[in-house]
Each structure stands twice: as structure tokens, then as C-alpha cells.
Amino acid sequence: MSRRIAPIAISCGEPAGIGPEVAAGAWAALEGAVPLFWIGDPRVLPSTLPVEVITDPSAAADVVHRALPVLALPFAGAPRPGLPDPRTAKGVIDAIARGVDLVRSGAASALCTAPIHKKALIDGAGFAYPGHTEYLSALAGGARAVMMLASDQLRVVPATIHIPLQDVPQALTPTVLRETIEITARGLRDQFAIKAPRIAVAGLNPHAGEGGKMGRQEVEWIAPLVAELAATGMDIVGPLPADTMFHAAARARYDAAIAMYHDQALIPIKTLDFDRGVNVTLGLPFIRTSPDHGTAFDIAGKGIANPSSMIEAIRLAARMAGMR
Predict the structure, then answer these.
(1) What span, in angstroms and rounded, lies between the C-alpha atoms of 224 and 58?
(2) What distance in Å separates the CA atoms of residue 45 and residue 117, rounded to the nearest whole number?
(3) What pLDDT is attached to residue 324?
(4) 162 assigned to a ligand binding site
(5) 132 is in an annotated binding site
(6) In a domain, 180, yes or no
(7) Domain check: are 22 and 65 in the same one?
(8) What is the pLDDT of residue 289?
């Protein structure tokens, strides 16, 4: 695979977090099996890491066996592990945008993003997006994108993402849920090579509303929407009680679960596979993956960050690129 796809671009993420460490750990663990390059300021990478600055992504495949290929993007400021510096915000944002440009041009086959720290981006550059997903959607021209969390044990997609729980019932509309389901089904076919994806839809309320006694959304429009999509030939069931759809026997009956809000989706996957879960953005005109963890300022620079999720994110990006 390493010679058949363009290299994977890795954006630096928050330089004061564990992003540089897990990128270094992933490079070491993969041992050149996947062509990749890192975008950012080489100063923030571990000092013991062999690094080779490249000027073009096409050089990555030849370099990756002996050093981490780096497309250098100098940052302002001097961040230290655990201490974010708002002056680096523009550089962090530019690294993401540069990665998107390279993927869309074909110079890279996928983008893998290290975790960002939104407060530092807001303080330093007025970042106007709730998170990576929304920013990538804007870079793609406003394409409706959804966030999938994926591991070998579970794929789950929240229909609403970075909003307060009290706002979920208003944000969760039939249009939003329909688009989320359709984008998920298309992503499973096109990016995961699942010809006839099976989808399970969670309810919004406890016990999926229990026939309207614990909430009316399920009976009034979620169940009719699921039935409408099933009538088109989609293999879809729901709404199901969220507390009974994530055990092993239930997971065997679907390829992806649609959750109604952030924690309903992320709690099960982080419980099942905390270290190896991967964030995949569906609906974009390019492949994007990311480790399913944050900046972890408390352990940054201590050499103990687990690179497993970054490794899986890079491997999944390479597999998805190979399927295209």
C-alpha cells in the first residue's frame, strides 16, 4: 500500500499538547509501512526524533523509513509542554488548511489531524469554529460533514456534536437526522467498502421515549423517518433504546450506530476502546481522520503519551485511501 497511495498528511495540532509526541510515536511504530509527513514547526517535535525537512510531499515515501518527513511551517511564539501559547494559533490553523489544500490537490491522499486546543485558537487567532469538523467543513465549501468515531468494536455517529445538552432537542431536526444517516450510509459504502451498510438509530429519550411516555420525538418523527428510509431499501432500524444497543450482541447487528448527541456516541466507544478509537469525518470531499483524544496538557512532554489512537488514525486513513 505504501507505494500505491500518496502520503498521509499529519497536521501538528496544539504544539503544547501531546500531538507532537504521538505523531513521533506513530512514526516509530509504523516503521515506514505508511508514507506520511508532518506539517508544523519542527521545534515542537521531541528532540530525540530523527527529522528530515522536505519541500514537497512526494519526497515523503523515500524519507519516512529513516526519519519523520516534515513540511516545515514556522510558528510564532515558543510553546512549552502543557503551556499553550496563543501566538502559535495562526500556525496551527494554517497547518490544517495546508493539509486540506494538499489532499484536495492530490499531493496527499488523506489528512490526519492531531488534537487542537480551541481556547488557544480563539485567544490567539479568533478561531470561529466549535471544532475541527466544522472548520474542515468550511474549508470544503460548507459541505455538510458528520463525525464518526470508529474502532474495531464500534462505529458511531452523533447527529449533533459540540452543543450544550439543553440545545439538542431544538438542533435535532428531521433534516439534520436524515442528512446524518444518509451521509453515514454513503461513507460506509464509499470509504469503508461496505456494499449494503446496516444502520441502527438510537432514540433521543430514555427507553427511546417508551411509546411517548418519556418524550414524543421518537413517535412523532424519528420512527416515521426511519421507516421512510427503510422503505427506500436502506437497511436501518430504530429508534432503539441507547442503553441496550452497545453491548456485543447488539453491535453485531449493525455496521454503524447513529446517536442523537455527543456523549451518547462517545461514551460507549471510549469505554470499549479508549486507546484505539479514531475520529473520521464523513461528507467531506477528502479523507480526514484524527486520534480520538484531546491535547492532554497534564502529561505533555513527559514521554508517556500513548500513540495508539494516532497509529490507528493513520492506518485507517491509509486503508480508506487505498479503497478509493
Answers:
(1) 50
(2) 17
(3) 62
(4) yes
(5) yes
(6) yes
(7) yes
(8) 97
